[in-house]
Automatic annotation (TrEMBL):
Signal peptide: 1-22
Domain of life according to the entry: Bacteria
Keyword Signal among record annotations: yes
Protein name per Swiss-Prot or TrEMBL: DUF4397 domain-containing protein
Length: 251
């Protein structure tokens, strides 16, 4: 009898412990998106412990001009988040980071860190995000335009075939507001042209493939209900990977 009572007592304690664990709410977290636009880099390695040694297998690497969703880091809210950024593979103890940052990440916030400049002169653009909402009743997408090309003059963005610009006078390390576009109009893909704001010369173009596609598909629509940015990266006169080009950033 005593043995059975002991077993029941243990089971009851385990149930109470499990219930207690279930009521513990997770701490609020912040989201950080990182985009690598450092001319001359291939991969950036991030250390969210600052100067404290860390395990290399936990390192997050951000590829240059990566068109996929940028690295997203969630951390418990602690007010200030240290972040040291290295040019991979130069992440040994003797090597210095490209950047030493202390980011303020309020609980529940979303921020983007655009790492730009060059390996000799790295730079950053840190933005708190307030992304547009898309109603299910509207077939729309939102796009903004960013100038991350170090040393560039102000640029404007036009859609090929249209006379009025979508955005103008976007200086280095600045961006336009989000512009909402319909995606259920049966027409050709939009071609966005980044032009020198002063001379009107075309710098680079980007074709928004599938932005107006309305036919049946097993794949999700690449633009519907999504927020994206088109960013000008690279340096003027650069060749190969360092050329000026437009990349898409997903949020």
């Amino acid at each position: 009898m005593k043995k059975q009572s002991f077993i029941y007592a243990c089971l009851l304690a385990m149930m109470l412990f499990s219930c207690g664990k279930a009521t513990i709410m997770p701490k609020d977290a912040a989201a950080l998106n990182i985009m690598n636009a450092v001319v001359g880099s291939e991969l950036l390695a991030t250390n969210f412990k600052g100067g404290t040694p860390y395990d290399y297998y936990r390192t997050m690497y951000v590829q240059y001009a990566d068109p996929s969703l940028p690295t997203r880091h969630y951390s418990s809210y602690n007010g200030e988040q240290p972040l040291w950024i290295y040019n991979f593979p130069d992440t040994t103890e003797k090597d210095l980071p490209l950047l030493k940052l202390n980011l303020q990440l309020p609980a529940g916030s979303i921020h983007s860190l655009y790492v730009t400049g060059t390996l000799a002169q790295p730079d950053t653009m840190f933005v708190e995000e307030h992304l547009p909402n898309h109603s299910l009743g509207d077939s729309t997408t939102s796009i903004r335009f960013i100038n991350l090309s170090p040393g560039s003059q102000s640029v404007k963005v036009t859609i090929q075939g249209k006379s009025s610009p979508e955005a103008g006078n976007i200086a280095y390390k600045t961006m336009s507001n989000f512009i909402t576009y319909p995606v259920n109009v049966p027409q050709a893909d939009d071609v966005f042209e980044f032009r020198d704001a002063a001379s009107d010369a075309v710098i680079a173009t980007f074709t928004a493939t599938g932005i107006h596609y309305t036919g049946p598909s097993v794949q999700p629509h690449p633009w519907l209900f999504k927020n994206k940015a088109l960013a000008l990266i690279g340096i003027r006169g650069g060749t190969g990977a360092q050329r000026q080009q437009v990349v898409v950033i997903n949020y």
